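can u do me a favor
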């Protein structure tokens, strides 16, 4: 048998990567959601941030988040009588933000759309057209930007050809509702309860992002959905390595809940939509059978998808599934992977790549997993995968194609509870033993990972509870903060992790979803991205949020009663001005 020898040139190149990985530079902690107030609950609330770096112009960064800045200040009648600040009036929540200096400073443009930000707070008002801090052109196209934002940057197409010489195209996907569902007029923009729509902006500059006309109208991705469909949890990616045979192709994934009119959303199917023309048109495919491959509600349907491509154009789809917490006292989960070798036309059968654990505690008021205490911040998506691929963008020539995968294990009895990271160098066929990268005492809710395109440095951002489980104790602090870590990557894999940012503590009790007063919330995911020379992570920060004693007393009373008690407090009169004041923050080593 002939013995194959590794060329010495390849060994030297790999060794050079191992010893010359760029060190972590000075760290900047910046507020991303700069256009929203600190007071006026719920306008001061953001959650679920996403971020992307332009591979061919790494000074440019784009972010999105659920942003309540255009909502009406909490109406007294709704708060007292229904324990909510939420008004179904067609005002969206998909905020958009830009940085032109590697995440050190951010801008939130003022566009025009449907808003209620300047309404009074006595009772629900009718929204009107005015300044907004969100992605534009939804109201004008009969749509509502409904959150769960995701962002990506790829090459701009000209005459059907993709090239970085043409500049860049920004993609912003989010959930979309039909405006006619709120106004009661018109035939509707699509069938179903909720869809996914994608907005686009070419060649971003400070002047262009400030103009609403730079944005193209949103495109509804799947026009064939059923009338009971509720699309949710979308993510988006643009193949940004010129070496790929599918360079420029855009991939969007989401969960397709099939019976929103009944049956708690089941069955549920994982969907992937692909565009080969820069987002003008989309082809949507269901990549496996619905309802967790026949396991029914005992093992919940696949959720929390993430999609990426390598330098050869292989597309990787990851998502998770978890046991029904009402049927299992210690819910287990699985991270599942599928691959496409032909630009998203066909997908391999799903394979389980990691086992995960979830908190056994289900909040009796919200019915969601929590790890800080009852009425707490939900963590049902803690085990959702976050992946990135060192695909050598923008050219692809020096790609290692290492995949990094991160998630949070929140099972209380798990020996490896924390932010977990693993990696693969053979297209996900084998994986390194998972490593816990969170600090002792940190109990992460959500974790996200990124790797430099050249594959020499990895990054992780997580947000974590630092206080013990509080149970029904709503009076003790529930400390919480964000952390950013980095590690060099060499021949043997990911090196030692260094904490490059340890954020200030906030109190989760000072947060709430922007609508239901019964619970805390910082969202269902966070995000990280990396260039060749720096990394950036975004998370939800509560350092400037104040606990409201009246809300905590009411939450405790509601727990004892087994349901929200009416009347409820009115945050604008009964709470400190900064109750609920969560911010999107970005930490950057650029």
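np, heres the sequence
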């Amino acid at each position: 048998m002939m013995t194959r020898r590794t060329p010495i040139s390849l060994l030297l190149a790999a060794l050079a990567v191992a010893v010359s990985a760029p060190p972590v530079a000075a760290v900047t902690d910046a507020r991303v959601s700069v256009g929203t107030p600190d007071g006026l609950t719920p306008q001061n609330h953001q959650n679920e941030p996403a971020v992307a770096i332009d591979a061919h112009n790494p000074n440019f960064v784009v972010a999105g988040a659920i942003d309540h800045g255009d909502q009406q200040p909490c109406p007294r009648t709704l708060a007292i009588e229904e324990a909510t600040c939420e008004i179904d009036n067609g005002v969206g929540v998909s905020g958009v933000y830009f940085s032109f200096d590697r995440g050190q400073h951010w801008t939130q443009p003022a566009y025009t759309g449907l808003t209620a930000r300047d309404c009074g707070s006595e009772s629900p008002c009718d929204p009107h057209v005015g300044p907004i801090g969100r992605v534009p052109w939804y109201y004008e196209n009969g749509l509502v930007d409904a959150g769960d934002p995701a962002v990506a940057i790829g090459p701009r197409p000209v005459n059907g050809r993709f090239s970085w010489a043409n500049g860049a195209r920004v993609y912003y996907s989010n959930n979309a509702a039909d405006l006619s569902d709120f106004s009661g007029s018109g035939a509707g923009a699509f069938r179903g309860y909720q869809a996914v729509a994608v907005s686009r902006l070419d060649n971003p500059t400070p002047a262009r992002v400030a103009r609403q006309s730079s944005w193209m109208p949103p495109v509804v991705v799947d026009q064939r959905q059923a009338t009971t469909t509720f699309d949710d949890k979308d993510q988006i990616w643009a193949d940004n390595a010129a070496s790929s045979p599918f360079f420029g192709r855009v991939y969007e994934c989401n969960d397709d809940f099939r019976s929103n009119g009944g049956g708690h959303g089941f069955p549920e199917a994982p969907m992937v939509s692909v565009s080969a023309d820069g987002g003008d048109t989309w082809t949507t495919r269901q990549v496996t059978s619905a309802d967790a491959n026949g396991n029914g509600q005992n093992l919940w349907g696949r959720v929390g998808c993430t999609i990426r491509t390598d330098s050869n154009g292989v597309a990787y789809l990851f998502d998770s599934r978890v046991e029904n917490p009402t049927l299992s006292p210690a819910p287990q989960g699985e991270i599942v992977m599928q691959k496409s070798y032909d630009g998203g036309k066909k997908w391999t059968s799903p394979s389980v790549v990691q086992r995960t654990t979830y908190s056994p505690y289900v909040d009796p008021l919200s019915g969601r997993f929590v790890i800080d205490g009852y009425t707490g911040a939900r963590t049902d998506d803690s085990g959702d995968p976050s992946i990135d691929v060192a695909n050598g963008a923008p050219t692809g020539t020096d790609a290692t194609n290492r995949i990094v995968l991160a998630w949070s294990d929140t099972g209380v009895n798990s020996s490896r509870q924390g932010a977990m990271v693993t990696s693969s160098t053979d297209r996900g066929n084998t994986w390194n033993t998972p490593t816990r990268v969170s600090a002792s005492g940190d109990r992460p809710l959500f974790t996200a990972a990124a790797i430099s395109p050249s594959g020499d440095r990895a990054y992780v951002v997580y947000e974590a509870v630092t206080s013990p489980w509080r149970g029904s104790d709503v009076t003790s602090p529930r400390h919480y903060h964000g952390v950013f870590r980095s590690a060099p990557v060499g021949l043997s894999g990911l090196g030692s992790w260094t904490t490059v940012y340890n954020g200030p503590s906030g109190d989760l009790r000072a947060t709430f979803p922007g609508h239901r007063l019964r619970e805390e919330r910082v969202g269902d995911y966070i995000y990280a991205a990396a260039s060749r020379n720096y990394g950036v992570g975004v998370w939800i920060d509560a350092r400037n949020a104040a606990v409201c004693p009246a809300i905590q007393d009411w939450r405790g009373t509601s727990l004892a009663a087994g349901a929200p008690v009416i009347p409820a407090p009115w945050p604008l009169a009964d709470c400190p001005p900064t109750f609920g004041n969560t911010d999107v923050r970005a930490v950057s080593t650029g």
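The longest strand covers residues 161-178. hope that helps!!
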